[in-house]
């Protein structure tokens, strides 16, 4: 990330985790050979482990830095695991050794055992990774052999060994004598590997270097008299070589410097053959002295880079194993790839730079840079003559100015300069030069203003990346197989004429950059094995992609993210008019950050999903200051609920059977009654009968809970229901031309069969055949059933292909009733949330009066203006309340029959149906349904207890727990209500010090067992809960929260205790 | 005899008076503040939490208790508690500060919810969130009128918000099925009311699917009924045309 201003730098520095990958190139002379090292730094915080993932993919090796005092932290484990998964070779740096000396005041012996401990821990981690891999492979082999038992050729000898013994793993471990461990103190500028000392002491003592290399680390001691190295015998109190030869020397140096023992320092310095500058030697701060001495004696850069050069592989050494792993995603095996693709493996291995070699580039992430930082926008350095010319020019101007200003107060030069100084270089120049600078015209057309340029962070795996080369951009879901199927072999038309293949695009490599920290340098071509930046790809690449000249190249496996996004917040602009900026900003953020997810929800919320709280903070800052540049507000996302009904409970809240207890007379026992207004009859079994306001139609509705499995089936088959809906509507319009697809037909019958299978028993007899509609939105998990006699318009008639066309007016009425049902299911009575798993049964519909009326209308129509008396009577009977004179109405019959003082009849029917459904619900025991997450937690055994504590505090339920084979990790599966998940990830990480990492995925809806309207009614319940039952009722709490948010009436007292109010008005 | 000096003057500070006129007399009862509305809505069930005292007054601030005869002549009983309950449910109330506050807040939320429900962002066809609407309402300094229905006010708010931000009422999707000969005439009349015509099909009948502003549904409905003399029909395909489901931004 390029820092363009000091303010921003300071702001970023405040948060140590806010530091991003910086790629630095360095030439290193090591021995005779010159090396080029691409160094990519990645942040250590868990939230940013995605940055590690992106970096690791394009590297061949990695340096793992461990704090000598704190030892192995959770993040160390994560990083090791990532390196392991990507098959790259790690080396270890144990840093901050000086803290062992200065802060902890360890003796060399103690320090040695401490370091040994750390190494052992790390090796143990590597060991578990290794064993788990071996076990996995073994398990795979076993399943394979089970699949084709013939291949075993009847060999019955069962292999009891785990395979661990056979596999050599010694090269995996970190050990100083292997040369892959370096001890450093970066702050004091020193670091060493064993080799360094081995060289010194072999010269001094004459012991062979190889022997020393082996014995300097480990329990060996030197017998000075015999000049022999022996195994340590702890009882004798002999010091190991490492302590005696290395640590003690360093300790004594620190000792001398800290005690300011001049003589001793001098002695050490001369004995080491160093030259310390007079200034450093006299400096009072011991840190400076140590730094001066050590950086000459044991320079850290040399120690670390030497190890890097020796131990880490070059791009040429890429292992076949890694190539195969990169090329085959998921469960694919390498052998299953098309032969053209398999052939590419050789190209990988060869890493050839000839022009014929296929170009393969992997883009691991996109990052935004300031437009000013791009080299083409930068000012090119001035030539000598130009500088001289400008100097001359400026001097003349300056002289003129001085002449003009004489006598006046001296001008404030900075003032007028500040308006002019827009040049991007903004560096501090002095005197006249500064004015020269101000003279230069703006070099950049301000194209960066409306768009943040993105640069792809990439690596060339094979071939040479040249500017202007045509290349395929392969998205993560691209499949070479598909391409090969679509495009005939030997296809040689120009690249642009290719038929479209999903997830593939074609573009030209426009700008290639060398990444030098914050600097970008233009490049013409990039040979294989190098890390580079590519400009102009933002329209083709979202987050990561594979670029290749050959379409047969497979996309690389998706990046392996340790942390999945889990923290959700809703983001909104402070000023509602700035919505478009926010959306644009979020799109950019999505592209720039590999580990962020952005969702637009049905409620219109923009939800930002990040890996953790720190990551969230960074994302919000980026959004505010770079991508959207607006004020935003962040809030908890809205939590959805569903409403449903259940069977009446058999037992009450204290587990006593209902009906046996004496009901206590309660003041508010009349609760049921005033929920249902007068004029509505309630029959036994919750049958509601309602009449439309103009008394033309009567509906009888009953609500029943659907079995859980049925709800599930309905949820799963919403697309089937939708296609059925389309069928019916097209049939109703006589558009029989639309043939029913065979497959959909099959699906529909399968769906019906499933429903029939689950809706059994007396109560549900024939129900499936009478289903009229689904709701809400005609495809939801609720059913409308019509049990009236003359009903023949069920949903199944559509797919049957024999839809009976009803009279159009009848259809209209039916539509109104269905609409009423749709509205009722869209918002339930509890808190206006959608319903789920409810079956409404329309037992009776009495439209006879309406029919009579319309019939008479028709009669009238037939007879022209002369009406019969009966017709007039009927009209006057029915619409007596209507003020319109009858004669007038007959001239507009169509309207007259349907319009009266209550509005159109169809509208009345909708409203009545909706109300009837609502009341039918209210007479049944209502329940809320909460959205649930399934939660997978990986945790080590020692924090298991704390994980459970957090889960139970948040109403989570553990489903299963099992140990991962070969490790000490436990995998816990739990469910957690979405309503309780805000801040869950953060809490669990804090409580377990980062050792447990949860993952949340929405899974299902679950009924909250408690009744939101529950009040104690029996003696026992009184004893248990008290009269007011103010112990917490989860469902009620949720319901009231939703109602409050929506501005619905909440049954809550404004003031709890009348006497406890402040009795004086405010101004007294 | 009472001497009114500042020291022995007792202020009625936690008192809300409920008055009622009956039989030409005024009766008052002394209640606690912020409690009467709760009693009326049935949230508060404890009478003692509402009433300061069970006695009925002629004038609460002067402490004049109503006479027994008057009570009997007005209410037909002298059971003070019973009379108090009657006055509580039927008398005129002073709405206290907190009661008014919660009522207004509730209405404000209700209006915002209604607006959010009815409207969409015309660019994305997605609804705005309630919180955003609330903030926008505060920005335009909308003040809630307690005696107007929330639905009416919501429509008013939409009109005002349109000037500030991109907001529009969600369209309604309708289908007309009209007889051909009348259909063409009718179509011309309907045109100004229709926002977008999605499909048109001239077969045996004229079949139009279109989007309209929900505000002019009634007008259209009447027009269709009147012009076609009941032969044409109109079907509501969806009440509001919004994007459904979650979308992942990519």
UniProtKB/TrEMBL annotation, chain A:
GO terms for cellular component: cytosol; ribonucleoprotein complex. It comes from the Eukaryota. Residues 1-316 form the Tr-type G domain. InterPro entries: EFG_II, EFG_III/V, EFG_V-like, EFL1, P-loop_NTPase, Ribosomal_Su5_D2-typ_SF, Ribsml_uS5_D2-typ_fold_subgr, T_Tr_GTP-bd_dom. Gene3D superfamilies: 3.30.230.10, 3.30.70.240, Elongation Factor G (Translational Gtpase), domain 3, P-loop containing nucleotide triphosphate hydrolases, Translation factors, Yeast translation eEF2 (G' domain). Residues 391-450, 861-896 are annotated as: Disordered. The keyword Zinc-finger does not apply. One of its GO terms (molecular function) is GTP binding. GTPase involved in the biogenesis of the 60S ribosomal subunit and translational activation of ribosomes. Together with SBDS, triggers the GTP-dependent release of EIF6 from 60S pre-ribosomes in the cytoplasm, thereby activating ribosomes for translation competence by allowing 80S ribosome assembly and facilitating EIF6 recycling to the nucleus, where it is required for 60S rRNA processing and nuclear export. This is Elongation factor-like GTPase 1. It comes from Monodon monoceros (Narwhal). The lineage of its organism: Eukaryota, Metazoa, Chordata, Craniata, Vertebrata. The gene is EFL1.
Automatic annotation (TrEMBL), chain B:
InterPro entries: Ribosome_mat_SBDS_CS, Ribosome_mat_SBDS_N_sf, Sdo1/SBDS, Sdo1/SBDS-like, SDO1/SBDS_C, SDO1/SBDS_central, Sdo1/SBDS_central_sf, SDO1/SBDS_N. Required for the assembly of mature ribosomes and ribosome biogenesis. Together with EFL1, triggers the GTP-dependent release of EIF6 from 60S pre-ribosomes in the cytoplasm, thereby activating ribosomes for translation competence by allowing 80S ribosome assembly and facilitating EIF6 recycling to the nucleus, where it is required for 60S rRNA processing and nuclear export. Required for normal levels of protein synthesis. May play a role in cellular stress resistance. May play a role in cellular response to DNA damage. May play a role in cell proliferation. Residues 14-100 form the Ribosome maturation protein SDO1/SBDS N-terminal domain. Residues 172-239 form the Ribosome maturation protein SDO1/SBDS C-terminal domain. GO terms for molecular function: microtubule binding; ribosome binding; rRNA binding. Belongs to the SDO1/SBDS family. One of its GO terms (cellular component) is nucleolus. This is Ribosome maturation protein SBDS. It is found in: Cytoplasm, Cytoskeleton, Spindle; Nucleus, Nucleolus; Nucleus, Nucleoplasm. Residues 109-170 form the Ribosome maturation protein SDO1/SBDS central domain. Keywords: Cytoplasm, Cytoskeleton, Nucleus, Ribosome biogenesis. GO terms for biological process: bone marrow development; bone mineralization; cytosolic ribosome assembly; hematopoietic progenitor cell differentiation; inner cell mass cell proliferation; leukocyte chemotaxis; mitotic spindle organization; rRNA processing. It comes from the Eukaryota. Associates with the 60S ribosomal subunit.
